[in-house]
Amino acid sequence: AGQVVATLKASDPDTPGPLTYAVVSGDEGRFELDSATGVLRLRDSLDRETRDTYRLQIKASDGVQSAETIITIRVTDTNDNPPVFTEASYSFDVSENSSRGSRVGQVVAHDEDQGVNGLVTYTVISDWANDVFSLHPQTGVFTLTARLDYEEVQHYIFVVQAQDTGRPSLSSTLTVFFNVLDLNDNAPLFDPMSYSNEVFENVAVGTSVVSVTATDLDSGENGRLEYTIVSGDDEKVFDIEADNGTILTRRTLDR
């Protein structure tokens, strides 16, 4: 406020006396004009992002006659707006069999300033797993640069900065999450690989003989196990509980 915008001058060949100046319209309360000197000043601060042009109608009068003109004021940009991301945070799901070079996500920020003040570049400012994902500085696109394995790492978390190129530059940050989706890429493994046990021939039907155990590194339904007897029991002497691997006698044994 108070900054001089322009000094207006008018002349009157009929009257050598002083002229008075006045704003007729268009100032929106942002400007004040000294009626005696014609000095136009700011009354309030301007915001180019709200309005970038003002057209003021100015009148000069000698007390009897007057003339009017239009003054156009264009508001130039300053770097007063930081980049703003379109989301508070980003979360992307990525299959663990995604190939290297795959586009796996994109962050977007907008800057209301103009020119270099509004030009946004993106960088990862966290220092973990930068060899797994690559961020394009101009487009904000994340690309996969290494193999994923759900059984090793299920989640990746990055802090991304959007920065404009104004002077001084302004920036903002947010968190980006990558969730690795599990595939059924691991077979169940028995531990131990073989079992042995003895059982009396006079045991009751339904007696537990042995329990086998297997594990699967996959998760969810991919890691849920079901046990079945596939060979070696042609006479159907034994049953196995599908959910826990316990082998039971199905009928009376006869050695």
UniProtKB/TrEMBL annotation:
Residue stretches making up the Cadherin domain: 2-85, 86-190, 191-255
GO cellular component: plasma membrane
Superkingdom of this protein's organism: Eukaryota
InterPro entries: Cadherin-like_dom (IPR002126), Cadherin-like_sf (IPR015919)
Location in or out of the cell: Cell membrane
Keyword annotations from UniProtKB, A to Z: Calcium, Cell adhesion, Disulfide bond, EGF-like domain, Glycoprotein, Membrane, Repeat, Signal, Transmembrane, Transmembrane helix
GO molecular function: calcium ion binding
GO-annotated biological processes: developmental growth; epithelial cell differentiation; establishment of planar polarity; establishment or maintenance of cell polarity; homophilic cell adhesion via plasma membrane adhesion molecules; intracellular protein localization; open tracheal system development
This protein's record includes keyword Glycoprotein: yes
The UniProt record lists the keyword Disulfide bond: yes
Membrane topology of the entry: Single-pass type I membrane protein
Protein name: Cadherin domain-containing protein
